[in-house]
Amino acid sequence: MRRFAMMIALLLFSGLLHAALKVTQLQDKLEHPWSLAFLPGEQSMLITERPGRLRLWQQDKGLSAPIIGVPQVYAEGQGGLLEVLLAPDFADSRRVYLSFAEVGENGKAGTAVGYGRLSADNRRLENFRVIFRQQPKLSVGNHFGGKLAFDRQGYLFIALGENNQRPTAQDLDKLQGKIVRLTADGAIPPDNPFVGQADKGAEIWSYGHRNPQGLALNPWSGVIWEHEHGPRGGDEINIPQAGKNYGWPIATYGINYSGLAIPESQGQKVAGTEQPLHYWPVSPGISGMAFYDGKRFADWQGALFIGALAQEALIRLTLQGDKVIAEQRLLEERGERIREVRTGPDGYLYLLTDSSNGKLLRVGLTEKS
Fold first, then answer.
1. pTM for this one?
2. What residues are labeled active site?
3. Strand, coil or helix: what is 228?
4. Which of 26, 78, 21, 22 is nearest to 47 (CA)?
5. Complete DSSP assignment for 168-184
């Protein structure tokens, strides 16, 4: 009887007793979609496809032809066209930011970010301007990061992978394995932590990151949260603070894919490095991050949703302030790699699945009888 009561309490806690998931497929035939952004005042959104296409999706018209004016991308390995993000003043400026993998003269690649003006008919991205380039270019197709987020002060945060070159995440003269902070036009804020320090990148906000795949503004605290892939184990969530070291590769909860220890690792907890807010001993392959502050579904209020690529699920984390107090796996039965998660202006969750026939899904709750 006591066990049954505990099960009922768990169901009440998770909301499953009162509601079930309702998943609606809105679009398929997307080639490895990576990111989406909602256009204001319309039932429409911009979607990136990793091979290099930016598309408009509209509720009544479906998927557009590729938007003209997107920069050429390095579409090798994990590289290509990555994040799409609207400027905070998009309603006036029509400014759209893109992150993408860009090849250099040495044949290797790095992450770049720029913006252009979306035309009134949504068909062209005009006067595209690159405002940031990861230096040096070291990637042969791995660990680009590429997630973007604005904070409430209008600063642009860019999450950068270490290009599968582990030690560079600790090198402050390189932009691998870093989160950088810029103005909306790409300038370096004077209060960045390493401004004026020799041999340290003035763009850098935090360091010691492996391959960030989630970046979002917490709507309740007003600070940026980040998550990243570990190697074999050790996917983690962080709240990156100015000048702090988040450990990779000297501090990690993961091991190498071979089963051996990370060569540079000094343990899971290392002096001078920050512990993750939350980590997974077995890597889900986390991707996308959306805080739920919508008003449509009360059961989801205060939750954090994260996609899982390797474990093919939608992860729901219950938060208490800055602590994760419960975890739930959703959509496991679908067997689809979840690349992106966003909270829509209508209060539904919107997901992108990662495949050559990727899908746009709308997820909500339906009351059970």
1. 0.94
2. 143
3. strand
4. 26
5. GGG-TTS-TTEEEEE-T
